[in-house]
Amino acid sequence: MLRLLVSRVLAAIPLMLMVATLVFFLAQLNPVDPAATIMGDDADLESLAEKRAELGIDRPLVVQYWDWLNSAVVGDLGTNWFNGEEITTELRDRIPVTLSMVFGSLIVALAIGSAFGVLAALKAGRWPDRTITVASSLGLAVPNFWIGLVLAYYVGVKLQWLPAIWPTTRPDSLATWVEALILPCVALGISASAAIARQARSSMIGVLQRDYVRTALAKGLPVRRVVSRHAIRNAAIPVVTLAGFQTSALIGGSIFVEFVFNVPGLGRFGVDAILRQNMPALLGFVMVTAAVVVVVNIVLDLSYAWLNPKVRPE
Amino acid sequence: MSDALAGLGGSADAGELASPAPMPQESAAGATRSRFWARLRRNKVAMAGAVYLVLVVIAAIFAPLLTSHDETFATRFQDILFSPGEAGYVLGTDHVGRDILTRIFFGARYALIAGAEAVLVALVIGVPFGLAIGYFRGWADRIAMRFVEIVVAVPAVVMAMAIITGLGTGLTNAMLAIGLVFSMIITRLVRAEVFAAREEFYVDGARAAGASDRRVMWRHILPNVAPPLIVQTTLLFAQAVLAEAALSFLGIGADASQASWGRMLRDAELSIDRTIWPAIPPGIAIFLTVVAFNVFGDGLRDAFAREARGGRVGVGDVVPKERSAAAAPPWPSGSDDPLLSLRGLDIVFPKPGEGTDMTVVRDVNLDIGRGEVMALVGESGSGKTITGLSLMGLVPDPGQASAESIVLDGRELVGMDFNELRWIRGREIGIIFQEPSAALNPAYTVGRQVAEPLRVHLGMSKREARERAIELFAEVGIPDPHKRIDAFPHQFSGGMAQRVMIAMALSCEPKLLIADEPTTALDVTVQGQMLDLVGDLARSRGVSVLLITHDLGVVADLADRVAVMYAGEIVETGRLTDVFATPRHPYTEGLIAAIPRNEPRSGDLPTIPGVVPPPWEWPDRCHFADRCPYEAIECRRGPVELRQLGASLTRCERSHELELRGVQHASVVAIAGWEQPSDEPGSGGVMPGLPPGEGGPA
């Protein structure tokens, strides 16, 4: 298991490097001059050149890239072009907010989705299955930012049950933190729950038709044991795969939900970076999200090995 | 597997436990296509989605005609927000006085165009790319998959945002970015499907036949890739519509002059302190459109996938049946005190695609004496496997089994429910299946799987069960049982896995062992060993065996008595020696003639032309008449009853006048029977183990 872990971590390093390279050069395609964006339209050529030199973007791309990479390796993602803050510091404040939203949604979605998916499979074709199937295909289609708006308006503004937007001062207690997280998590987690429920249902249905389930029945095991021992573990493999994709989707989705609820997370940071061509910020944003996805995938790889002996290293 | 159903050719219900029988190529394509459309049309939800999408397309095309306002039209009263119905605005206006209904119609344009752009980009890049790397593999595949891995390591939206940073914001750029990200999904999908298709024999066959790479790709691989691709494209369209709305909502998609649904939501947020209303119609429009694409895509998938139904722990027990009025003559028992005595078994399945039932097993009687080996023989589709399963209450859903009685060692099994039958399954009746590697759970060690019934039925402790499992492994001839017990099923060869299955089936010392085609999936070289093992173990333990097989040859050395099944009925039964020496039914004669044996013969090897017809084509008269060389006018009169003739029972109108050819010494054929190549059930119109030919058995 340790060897598997080490090999996965080692494989992740070149992957991160490639992501950085790809994004760095992709973002350079834009002909707009960042200095002009920062200084405004009426800046004269001289001060623009000065700004470019200050930002270091007058140097050849390869040099910029090499420079950035060298600092990034030691955790320094550069300085924000617009406010002069360290990108690493800014991200450090925002990561916990986004991650608690993403993993809060994911865990709840896994619990709800798997439970309903397995239930639907065991009742295939009957009313619980139909209800769950319909609910999950509706859930998949709800735009999270729209349901966020609706929730913020009705639950937040009209009913005043929960905060409609993130508190402007830093939440001082766990309770306020959790309270502020509930609506964003609900908005974010609906589609993930629906997706997981669908996957759990279909893989469970698939597994229940396998020969080894028939063997288990032929041994005289009770249904409960056939389901919990012989079916669920095999049915979990595609669900775990999906959970990996969902983590990635949730991080993407958090951008929109943060926008609606005014959450000071990674998403807002990223959108600002794009709108203002803020290169160091954009790179920092992409690298952090990629790192989260990579770490989650390593964890999932390890859980595969537990679920499926075939992929266990000999 | 469930050979009673294999003849259905992959129909709905055969999907339960049976692997669908391959169909002849040409007829299959046409039938599959028409069934595809029939299934799709029957799917009301998918059709509703399709109708809605047509409406969206109409709205998009005729938006200017459907509305009296312009997409950017604002009332004279800037900053006045009309509620729905007010001042002639059906859905009201937004905060700058633009008609919401108008903008919804125009928004359909942006949604569809944006979706089409993204999907088109994804297909144009992904399909050729996926085909190429899937087909040529090697370094091109490795590099490409590395690249795909890099792109998908970042959330799709984030990657799209990075691309938008490079391209600049705006709707077209945004959808181009989304399309590029989606193309990775398409690439992966196409590549995976190509890999799967390559595994199929027909691709190798086409290559061997000298087809060019391009021809192989377009003619042989793409048609197989198409169904999942069509489904995925539909679903990606839904995702693209969502992405368009999302990016426009953030302000990096549609700009302020474009009435995109996402843009409308962004505008609605500006007046959210006054009312939520302007956010409702565009939100619902996005939601419904995405739902419509999703349900339509799901409908396509289900239609392609031959409606895999069911899924609950789908087995049924046998329910009691009234004795039929036209009572069959009493069944002469093989012994005075049989271990198992089955009377009047009927099994029905719903006819695929229709509400009506079809009978797949009709009025089967069976006696198995103590310590006796009973062979149940017949081609695929005859109903023998499902007959075996019914004895344990394992008839797969949605089948329905009923019987007058099943008495096992003095106990009536008919009417027992699932939990009462649990104490029969594994404890009184053990079973070995055809495909040992599929019958073992890949997630657990074989030791745990063999120990499981010991713990459940005999209450052994973990340690005791393990010790016993090791002993059992030794008894079934698995070398190194101490080590092998902790191995996983994928680490076993087919023959060794079947030994594990035998150990499992015999673990609780059952009285009856059902062996369902135990050698069919195995290498020819181990088939004989396996039968010897089953025979020896059964004899040494006094276990009765129900040996289910399509191959008369394999039973010759092992069985005491034989029951021959054809199309859901027992057509002949008797002592093995009698049946072999003087077959009383033309079908039995055909089966005997088809056994390869060591005797001089000229001409083609004999076969029985045709296949077992599917259950819904079984006539009311003799089921075999259409394939029978001795068919005469009296064979078409009506149902044929089993009748006594000599020492056997036979279901043939003409049996008394026919001189059927058998073999004098069953053992002559036995060895030959083992050495024939294994034959997949349902593989076509030939008798097991024989090359196709025209010759009849006469």
Describe the protein's architecture and organization:
The complex is a heterodimer of chains A (314) and B (698). Chain A has 314 residues and is mainly alpha-helical. In chain A, 77% of the residues lie in helices and 0% in strands. In chain A, helix 8 (174-208) packs across helix 10 (223-261). Chain A starts with a helix and ends in a 7-residue tail after the last helix. Chain B contains 24 helices and 16 strands. In chain B, a hairpin with a 2-residue loop joins strand 15 (643-645) and strand 16 (648-650). The radius of gyration of chain B is 33 Å and the shape is elongated. The model of chain B is unreliable at 1-28, 307-311 and 670-698 (pLDDT under 50). Chains A and B meet through helix 1, helix 6, helix 7, helix 8 and helix 9 of A and helix 6, helix 7, helix 10, helix 11 and helix 12 of B.
State the main characteristics.
heterodimer; A: 314 residues; mainly alpha; globular; B: 698 residues; alpha/beta; 8-stranded mixed β-sheet; 6-stranded mixed β-sheet; 24 helices; 16 strands; 46% helix; 11% strand; elongated; disordered N terminus; disordered C terminus
